[in-house]
Amino acid sequence: MIKKLLLFLAITALSVFSISSSQAHGAGTTSTPAADSKVSVMPSVVSIEFDGKLQTLGTEKINRITVTDPSGQVISDGISLVEGTKLSTKISILDSTGLMSVHYRIVSEDGHPVEGGYSFTVSENLTPSNAPNEESNKTAYGIEEESKSLFFAGLLAIIFLAITAFAVIRRNSKR
């Protein structure tokens, strides 16, 4: 009886651990410029480094990054470049100042789409930069995964299976 209960608990713990670890899709690790930073120079390139390789499908554009100025105008050039774990875009309008918004949508290595974003501020005294030499940031990004409902469904399924397995083990031990 005790061996069965320990086996049941081990299987349940492994199931919960595997579900929660599989939900860590494509988290941003660093960005240039850094999230919530204040820079004195408008960068010519904005980039985000992720914790795993990004999926690519030939010439299909499944990963994208856009940068908008305070008025909502897109100031990035519309081309999103993927290099392994890095997603970047060039800035086409270098004279914007104020709060810039960066939005991205990626397909992580495990195939899950992830959306998120952050912002940075460009001060009033602008000088265009050819090299992105702003600070990098190792903070968490506001990630909205399209698979959150899948996570909760999986968690409910595990709880249901755990209760069912416990009831079956208990019924069999009484015989």
Describe this protein's structure:
- The chain has 175 residues and is an alpha+beta fold.
- The protein has 2 domains: 1-23 and 147-175; 26-146, Immunoglobulin-like.
- Helices cover 27% and strands 29% of the residues.
- The protein is built from 2 helices and 9 strands; from the N terminus they run αβββββββββα.
- The protein has helices at 2-22, 148-174, and strands spanning 28-32, 38-39, 45-50, 64-68, 81-83, 86-90, 98-107, 113-122, 142-145.
- Strands 2, 4, 7, 8 and 9 form a 5-stranded mixed beta sheet that branches.
- A hairpin with a 2-residue loop joins β5 (81-83) and β6.
How many DSSP helices? Answer: 2
Global structural class: alpha+beta
Find the CATH topology of the largest domain: Immunoglobulin-like
Q: Please give the number of β-strands.
A: 9
Attribute tags:
175 residues; alpha+beta; 9 strands
Summarize the structure.
With 175 residues, the protein is an alpha+beta fold. It is built from 2 helices and 9 strands.
Tell me the layout of helices and strands.
Blueprint: H1 2-22, E1 28-32, E2 38-39, E3 45-50, E4 64-68, E5 81-83, E6 86-90, E7 98-107, E8 113-122, E9 142-145, H2 148-174
Helix pairs in contact: 1-2
